[in-house]
Amino acid sequence: MFGASAGTLATLAAPRIITARGLLTEPTLDDLIQRALAAATKAGASYADVRIVRMRNERVSTREDRIDGVSSSEEYGVGVRVIAGGAWGFAATPNVTATEAERIARSAVAIAKASSSLMKRPVKLAPEPAHVDVWQTALVKDPFKIPLEDKAELLLAINREAMKIPGVKYVNSWYAGVSEWKLFASTDGAYLEQEIVRLGPGYSVTAVDDKRGEFESREHDLPPRQAGWEYVEQSSLLADARRIAEEAVAKLKAPSVTGGKKDLILDPSNLWLTIHESIGHPTELDRAMGYEANFAGTSFATPDKLGKLRIGSPILTFYADKTTPGALATCGYDDDGVATQRWNLVDKGVFVGYQTTREQAAWIHEKRSRGTCYGDSFASFPFQRMPNISLAPSPQERSIEDLIAATDDGVVVTGRGSWSIDHQRLNFQFGGQTFWEVKHGKKTRMLRDVAYQANTLEFWAACDLIGGPKSWQLHGSLSDGKGEPAQSNAVSHGCPPARFRKVNILSTNRRSA
Amino acid sequence: MAIPTEAQAQRILQRVLTLARATKGADAVVSLSGTQAGNTRFAVNEITSSSDVERLTMSVTIQFGQRSASATTNQLDDRALDDVVARARRMAKLAPANPEAMPPLGRQTYKPARGASDGPTAATSPDARAKAVGTAIKAGDAAKVMIAGFYEHEARMHAIASTAGLWAHHAWTTAELTCTARTPDATGSGWAGASSNRVADLDAPALAKIAVDKAVRSAKPTKLDPGRYTVVLEPAAVADLLGFLTGSFGARRADEGRSFFSKPGGGTRVGEKLFPETITLRSDPADVQLAAWPFDREALPLAPTSWIEQGVVKGLAYGRYWAKQQGKPPTGHPGGWILDGGKATRDELVKGVKRGVLITRLWYLRSLDPQSILVTGLTRDGTFLIENGAVTRPVTNFRFNDSPVQMLARCDAMTAGVVANGMRVPALRTNEFNLASISEAV
């Protein structure tokens, strides 16, 4: 399903969608694109691109024995982004007609010109071959063609299983399917059609102790993926329902953790989010350069530290990619029309790379963009967004059980809990879904109220053991926020389990207070 | 294209209701929302992007008794309207019965929020945005600091109609300007921001001046030991923390035993005095500066309501289904939150502190324990030590682990309220605030 190689079609003088293996059913869009690009150029744009985007969402949600929401949404529109007078301008409309596209193209140029007198460094784009291609998520069963009853029945079956466990009082379960179809064309000759399908099913079980007035919840950890319905069918969502429910009840009865420095063993279902926050965000080049200072913040990983800063122990190599099949940020081309790639951000513990766009590559003297530009709808200005970022496994096979066996006094954390990190990505505090005490190489009992708090550089320096290839898992999130106005991005992170020595463990128990 | 007028919205929604009625036994609730937004971002003392965008959402919920489903589209041509109704109808027929389904709401009476929509705000041009942003950039250039920020204005409308005769319509505008200044050595950072329903209320040079001044004064901070401190929280910090409390007023979760307002052994904490008498927390749908609506998402009329009055919990929020189950009147889900302020000035708050910390704003707040509304997060963009009633020096930022409940319970002085993060809140002084660990981030 992956597109033809970049160079083969790049030499075409006047690329047309007909040269791609078409998903496209409305050839009038081709005319719209040409007219919008021409209008932008005529109005004074030195560069322009057009994105026509159709987003479809399907969502089913339930609680206990009932369906509490069934919805299907569609959003369609066109956005034109231009550079004029060295400044960006962007305009968008839901009216997908050639006349409207020409109007917003002219409007985008006027917006850019309004900003141009305040530009100290005119925007320049790194060169990229003019790709003409089609790319689609590899899938067997289109989830949008699966009957609603099948989705509802799966969720209600999960709820029934979970509700059988004494002490369980509430279950919420959900299914979300997202289809993102887009057509991108630029005055640099790119002409790209892509369709990305993402799924995110899950559930949360709540146990309540009425007498003590206490409650605890446990969420299932099935990662969202770029996939077809077969991913849900083959998953253990239903098979896990009793265990997840039992763990919610056990959590309610578990003793609170005693705070202090302990060895921490993080399951991939928890570690992925720590990677996202402490490695993913700091290596966004716009953030490091101050472009997100007003909202998301800046970064400890500034360009002067590239190739020098030790971020973690030598067993750690983090790579970025938008090519791993099934990962949420994977696609053929980014919203600059750049072919997607894989590269290292941290090599054997040393900070070596950034996430970039065509605008940003030259900021760190790179000749080509890393292809990480994205806008989350037709009406969103595309900018730098996180690719999939993963921790490479140890070459030596090693499981989480091996990590536990090698640990004298520690805590194992699984699943995504509460997470918070400062605006330069240094001080973080994370929770989880389940917590287990480890004593003398054995998992002894469940704990509750656990959070681990650390400084990014000290934390990764304290990592002394990671799992092998068989322990590596791909997790992720359908929504990661950045930018003003805020935009959402879907992104995956793969990792093995890992051990960290002497990390600060806190108790978040406030029930007695 | 401007956003649809009330008459246009009525025409479109009536057409969709007619399409929905064509199916025997179908009830329907339909809504239309429109946004016309303009924004300009700036960073590193230049404009980084600027956009004008239009968005629409048409939503159709079809009900066959207890079976219902919703479909949305942003296209308003005949084919799209037929399709959205057909999608909702098809899914509603397939959807399992929901015993909690309520029939569509009929005609309601709403108190209009006068002056919610401001013409000049809707008509703000990219040139006007660039001019305002230019003054902030100039302030940054003059002080030799880096300045970044965001200026946004929106004209919006939302209308809801039903086969039972409901008609709800609200149009409003919003405007926001925030800026962050940073010293070139990256050791100082300051923030200021304002929001309103009128761009005329946004004073770009004044906000830039506060941000620049805070950046310069916060440079080269020194470390202060983590611990429990008396803190003066500026309005943006108060609003961020308070949002976790205002989001906890749902009656259903309290009745189900999974909320701060649940009482151990059953029941709720309504009627309990949990806060000092100075604490009154209200919602006012007529406060147009807060972009509040006269109705909620279900189209239930919203009335001005006190949720905490002189320290006593006065009530919880009921949607239609839970109100019926519990035999209570539905309150709707409130917006337009107001924490009544006091008479102190900001300087007086500081004067009353022997040793404490002044906090400008907070970042990355996350719930740690919904039962006690324990929240973690960080301070940023202007954190200072207060000694013997005066701000003495900048200190490094902190991670805090504390609760808005405790913030209010231990509050001993407040200024008058201002608009911050969509609420009207004062700056306040509170005690024993848990600054749990140091963050070296600037």
Task: Characterize the structure shown.
The complex is a heterodimer of chains A (513) and B (442). Mean pLDDT of chain A is 93; it is low at 1-21. Chain A has helices at residues 28-43, 98-116, 148-163, 230-233, 241-253, 268-280, 285-288, 400-405, 456-461; strands at residues 47-63, 66-84, 87-93, 132-136, 168-186, 191-199, 202-209, 214-219, 225-226, 260-266, 318-321, 342-347, 350-351, 373-374, 383-384, 388-391, 409-414, 419-421, 427-430, 434-439, 442-447, 450-455, 463-466, 473-482, 487-495, 498-507. In chain A, α1 (28-43) packs parallel to α2 (98-116) and α3 (148-163) runs parallel beside α5. In chain A, β1 (47-63) and β2 form a beta hairpin. Chain A is 19% helix and 36% strand. Chain A has two domains: 6-253, 2-Layer Sandwich (PmbA/TldD fold), CATH 3.30.2290.10; 260-507, no CATH class. In chain A, strands 1, 2, 3, 4, 5, 6, 7, 8 and 9 form a nine-stranded mixed beta sheet that branches. In chain A, strands 10, 17, 18, 19, 20, 21, 22, 23 and 26 form a nine-stranded mixed beta sheet that branches. Chain A has a four-stranded antiparallel beta sheet with strand order 13-12-11-16. Helices cover 24% and strands 38% of the residues of chain B. In chain B, a hairpin with a 2-residue loop joins β1 and β2 (46-64). Chain B has two domains: 6-214, PmbA/TldD superfamily (PmbA/TldD fold, 2-Layer Sandwich), CATH 3.30.2290.10; 221-442, no CATH class. The two termini of chain B are 42 Å apart. Chains A and B meet through β2, β3, α2, α3 and β18 of A and β1, β2, β3, α2 and α4 of B.
Helices and strands in order, then pairings?
The complex is a heterodimer of chains A (about 525) and B (about 450).
Chain A: H1 28-43, E1 47-63, E2 66-84, E3 87-93, H2 98-116, E4 132-136, H3 148-163, E5 168-186, E6 191-199, E7 202-209, E8 214-219, E9 225-226, H4 230-233, H5 241-253, E10 260-266, H6 268-280, H7 285-288, E11 318-321, E12 342-347, E13 350-351, E14 373-374, E15 383-384, E16 388-391, H8 400-405, E17 409-414, E18 419-421, E19 427-430, E20 434-439, E21 442-447, E22 450-455, H9 456-461, E23 463-466, E24 473-482, E25 487-495, E26 498-507
Parallel strand pairs in A: 4-6, 10-17
Antiparallel strand pairs in A: 1-2, 1-5, 2-3, 5-6, 5-7, 6-9, 7-8, 10-26, 11-12, 11-16, 12-13, 14-15, 17-20, 18-19, 19-22, 20-21, 22-26, 23-26, 24-25
Helix pairs in contact in A: 1-2, 3-5
Chain B: H1 6-21, E1 27-43, E2 46-64, E3 67-73, H2 78-94, H3 119-122, H4 126-143, E4 146-162, E5 167-182, E6 189-196, H5 204-217, E7 227-233, H6 235-246, H7 251-255, E8 281-283, E9 305-309, E10 312-313, H8 320-326, E11 337-339, H9 346-351, E12 355-369, E13 374-387, E14 390-394, E15 397-402, H10 404-409, E16 411-414, E17 418-420, E18 423-425, E19 428-439
Parallel strand pairs in B: 7-12
Antiparallel strand pairs in B: 1-2, 1-4, 2-3, 4-5, 5-6, 7-19, 8-9, 8-11, 9-10, 12-13, 13-14, 13-15, 15-19, 16-19, 17-18
